[in-house]
Amino acid sequence: MVNIGLLGDISVGKTSLLRLFVRYLNKGDIENVEGGTKCTVMKTDFSGEATVPGGKKEDALNEKETKTIHPNRIVFRDDKTNKAHTIFAPGGDVGRAVVKMGVITISRIATQIVAVFSMDRPIEEQLKFFTDVRFFPKAIYVCINKFDLVEGNKADKEKKLEAVKKKIVDYFTKRKIEVKETYITCGETVEGFADIETYNNAVAEMILEICTATG
Amino acid sequence: MAKKQKWLIMPKVHSKFNDQKIQDLLIDKASKFLSSPEREAPSFIFLSGQFFDVKGFAYSALRAWKGAAKPTDSGRRPLLEATFASLSVYLSSLLSLQSDFYFAYDEIKDILAEKNREDLWAIVEEKLPFISLPPREMYGSQVSPISPYFVINQDEDLILGEIYPSVYLTEIIKSIKSRFFVFFQHQGYSSFGFFNSLPGLKNFGFEQQAREFSSDPTPENLLKYAKNAKNLKEVMIALIHAHNNAFLEQFLIDDYELLLNKLLEG
User: Fold this and answer.
1) How many CA atoms lie within 13 A of B226 on its CB side?
2) Residue A190 has pLDDT above 80, yes or no
3) How many structural domains compose chain A?
4) Most Cβ neighbours (<10 Å): which of A105, B24, B127, B258?
5) Which residue segment(s) compose the domain that A190 sits in?
6) Considering chain B, what is the average pLDDT of its residues?
7) Burial degree of B228 (CB within 10 A; 0-12, 13-18, 19+)
8) How many helices and strands, by DSSP H and E, does chain A display?
């Protein structure tokens, strides 16, 4: 059994990653990604979400802006190995006691940590979240999410991505934490982004890889 | 008393509609399942709620606690209910994690049984009720009030525990001496129950699959479901649906976090 904790600052897309993964499991798409295998959802819990009145998403996509209070979680079983795995996604607002409690608890009980970042805003401010999180394992995974929001041509995007990767790796290296692997993802189904399937698939591939490598 | 008001927010009316028949039936059913020929049911409060905005918690409740004030009582503050409602928010976070690990324990049990190592399972099982929690130093200058319970019984979706009388929590909330509680998870929703003494366990529904409520969510259908409830789990499923469909009066704690912050101050 692998317990994965998705940790990161507010609005980096942790809950979206989790929801997308559940969608892949429910629709059977999980078998079609690289390294895919049949998995069964055993339990999902998104009751830790609070709807924020007047959130930004409300008009655009008919979705409501939400904020995670309690850690969201899913438990799924890899049907081939018959092993159950749990993914936790606590909130990012560590200024609030209940949310911080979830982050502390998950950072302690997760056997694998995925540090989640968003490409839509400066990485420095997102790294502050990790300054407060203690008891990290010595090696973690990094997920750079919302890649669809990077502007520019392909070369520009690559350049921006490499700069972000370097900052993240430097940050963790200074703290003697190895970054085992970096995944580039998009946790939402975005219209008009040509490579959306690739980056959506990357979410499922990331979770399966971590479970396979460490389970 | 004025000092306490600063960190314990009293519930206020959030939704007035109340189906008295549903309320009475659910309280009656809960009382029945919590009593035995030898003893009457303990005092209890059952709650089911959801977040409303980021610091608010709106809930419906079934109340049968002797001497405790209701939020609608005039002249008396519902201290016990306000405490339980706030407590339920942060206890539920820990308890749902506890519930997830039930899957792991089951797997460990199977693996050890397969290898004829029941002796090792006996060691693991003995430790199960003791919750692993972050140590005090993880909170810096704060203290952890969040290890206040012991798990008495647990299955996939229901946990029965006791809030210890000795923990830090009780230094802040004097009225919590020793309280027994149940926490039930169903389709991503949850319900809490608090008791003033330990009831008999045979009607809780441990290790029993509760019936789903899959009819149209009308008061009539919910009454029909609740009338046939065969254990406490099914009463809590009915309460969850009653809350989600606003069939019972709802109350709102504007800021459940004030109590937790007070506890964390140490």
Assistant:
1) 26
2) no
3) 1
4) A105
5) 3-214
6) 85
7) exposed
8) 6, 9
List Cβ<8 Å contacts ≥24 apart for A49-56. Answer: A49/A15, A49/B51, A50/B51, A50/B52, A50/B53, A50/B54, A50/B56, A51/B51, A51/B52, A51/B53, A52/B53, A52/B54, A53/B53
Distance separating alpha carbons of residues B167 and B216, to the nearest angstrom: 44
Per the domain annotation, does B5 fall within a domain? no
Answer whether residue B230 is part of any domain. yes
Contact present, B133 and B146 (Cβ < 8 Å): yes
Q: Cβ contact (<8 Å) for A53 and B50? A: no
Tell me whether strands A112-118 and A3-7 are parallel, antiparallel or unpaired.
Answer: parallel
For chain A, the straight-line distance linking the first and the last C-alpha, in angstroms and rounded, comes to 6
Is the ipTM higher than 0.95? The answer is no
| Calpha distance A11→A46 (Å, rounded) | 16
Of the listed ranges B7-11, B16-20, B24-28, B131-135, the least confidently predicted one is B131-135
Choose the closest CB to B189 out of A47, A83, A84.
A47
Distance, CA of A179 to CA of A164 (rounded, Å)? 13
- For residue B228 the two structure tokens come to 């046939």
Q: Average the pLDDT over A74-83 and give the result.
A: 90
Q: Judge whether B132 is closer than 8 Å to chain A, CB to CB.
A: yes
Q: Is residue B42 part of a domain?
A: yes
Q: What is the spatial distance between Cα A120 and Cα A171, in angstroms, rounded to a whole number? A: 19
pLDDT in tens, B139-192: 566 555 555 677 888 888 999 988 876 666 677 777 777 789 999 999 889 999
Residues, chain B, total? 266
Q: Is residue B112 part of a domain?
A: yes
Domain of residue A15, CATH code: 3.40.50.300
Q: How many domains does chain B have?
A: 1
Query: Which residues have C-beta within 8 Å of that of residue B263, sequence separation ≥ 6?
Result: B143, B145, B168, B169, B172
Burial B9-23 (b: 16+ CB within 10 A, else e): bbbeebeeebbeebb
* Band of pLDDT at residue A62, cut at 50, 70 and 90: very low
Query: What does the block give as tokens for A124?
Result: 């420095």
Structural domain including B168 reads 12-261
Provide the pLDDT confidence category of residue A48 given band limits of 50, 70 and 90.
confident
Most B CBs within 10 Å, among A105, A134, A211, to test the B interface: A105
Three-state DSSP class for B241? helix
